[in-house]
Request: fold
Amino acid sequence: MATKCVAVSRAAVSMVFAAGATMWLVGCGAGPATATATSAVRPPETRRVDVVDEYHGSRIADPFRWLEDQDGEDVLAWADTQNAHTEAHLAVVPDREAIRARLTELWNVTRWSAPARRGPHWVWSQNDGLQNQAVLRIAKSPDGESEVLLDPNSLSSDGTVALAGASFSKDGGQLAYATSDAGSDWIEWRVMDVASRTALDDRLRWSKFSGAAWTHDGKGFFYQRYPEPRAGEIHEATTRNPSLCYHVIGTPQSADRIVYERPDEPNWGFGAEVTHDGRFAIVNISAGTDRRNRVAWIDLADGSMAVRPLLMDFDAQWDFVGLVGDAALFVTDHDAPNGRLVAVALSDATQRRQVVPTCAEKLAGARLVGDEILAIYLRDAHDVLVRFATDGSPKGEVVLPGLGSIGELTGEPDDRVAHLTYESFTRPSSVYALDFATGSLRLVRQPALRFDPDAFDVRQVGFHSGDGTPLKMFLVRRKGPLRLDGKNPTLLYGYGGFDSSLRPAFSVENLAFVERGGIYAQATLRGGGEYGLGWHLAGMRERKQNVFDDFFASAEFLHRNGYSDHDHLAIRGRSNGGLLAGACLVQRPWLFGAAIPEVGVLDMLRYHRFTIGAAWEPEYGSADDAGLFPVLRAYSPLHNVHETVYPPTLITTGDHDDRVLPGHSYKFAATLQAAQRGPAPILLRVTRRAGHGAGKPTHVQIAEATDRLTFLAMTVGVR
Reply:
């Protein structure tokens, strides 16, 4: 499951078809490119087993349960046959190699993260184009010549070991860095002496969803650690009962001090952030993915590491921004559904002062840089940057370069410059510096453009969901006359969950689709965070069907207004968005010409039994709950497949995904293949040595994007 979309980075390196229709074969206009010979390619047979579970008096069969054993030899062999079946369909599409070549060309540009000052150094990550992994670089100035500090490409021959975290000591002399193998959420922390570029002996295993927060004496750092999983269950076993630990450099992990743990609350998670002045550590306590959290603090001066309560009611979201005097500044939705900035005295949590009040737009995040608060707001699902003095006095809105989103925002209270990355649908992520004197942005670095960004039209349209809720959707296409005849190949994308905001972002893959005459449509759905707390609550748990209904309304808008029709409209979503695509596919297959559910949560009755799945119960609920079981059963994609005609479907996953297990996709693919009563293919693509998405090598990203675009050319066509 994708973690919450975070606007501020503190670690910069940090259809039923019409009767007899075979649209996927013969096409319309330029049309789908698949040769009719592929209709003879049948999916592999999948063995069934006699497994039945009982939920509150209901018996639910699970005939493909054996596919949950992702490392089993029979499952690996089955996945190989599925990949071969998928390849047999995609290999005959004439445009496949042209698609691959264009994607490679667009990808082959230098890209940077925002620079951040760490001691005497400036650091950022950089990919020179087709490097499998970005390289951590170090320099004397934010725009000066740099040299390699850490190159993760040297850590594996196939590029599947990625840098998953980087944190410098206060003086910049030591670097704690985390690596991930084959896309796993498991990370291993190492420590480097920056001056000599040598790795120390420290090696910290069994960490997940964790940063490294150094104490200012440079002696060690806080991190989150889980119990070691049982042998053979590293990628499948439930991930529970973490501890917040403090590691002293030069000592074994077994000697790490447990600072905070709650074995009575196995789904809680912990993080720490040391304040800029080094006096305190702010401890975040979360209950799974629930937006509401607790906050505690540690006075680092007395050496006791005693954790003291501050905000302990789980009554709201409290995101720490920094210290203002002796008070902690938070972004919170306490008594403010759109968020506000509140200062809380560490000595007495009842002493609270509103610094910046709530407004009509969602406050997505904030950062203290210099003597200012830089606040990011969401205005109809795109970012706005506003400056405030630390007392809350407004200092104006920063003019951003178009309709887009801030990826990173870096800078510290003793800096006089802030850096950010900014991107849009038609412009890749570029690095800017904010001039505090003028309030304007200066371009620092921009990737070379291998296309004309002014050749595309981006607009946001409004319409209503079935229950009358106003909705918005971005549409991206080539400029020029648009035939509203329903024949435009269109890709509809959505997410709708976990308070995560889907904002304008640059995608080489989407750009290539639009270049080929397609329309990219990005729907803003309930369940996300674009319009504040109420928007999120309206799309979770008992109200999850609202998200799917919003997606249906988005598709119907495109049909009704002639942008596309059911033969030319494809849907796509990842993770929770894979659930979205899967649920909409099985509920109304006649609306769509193709579907691409990626790394999706597709078995809503068993998702919580694996790895970190139980952490999502605040968002979805659990089938163990008699009240929520019928809700989950009603929309679970796996359990709502019927013998009918489905559109062409490409289901994708990674064989090492330990966030949303590949078993979700495996069982869904087998069930759809068995139920399909039409001619369209149900395909499964399994990427080897890949996880949920993070850390994926560039060559693998290009290969996956090539096959998705090839599938779209084969199904909804090009124009």
Q: What stands out?
A: Residues 73-90 form the longest helix (18 residues). The first strand starts at residue 52 and ends at 55. The CA atoms of residues 501 and 529 lie 5 Å apart. Confidence is low (pLDDT under 50) at residues 1-37.
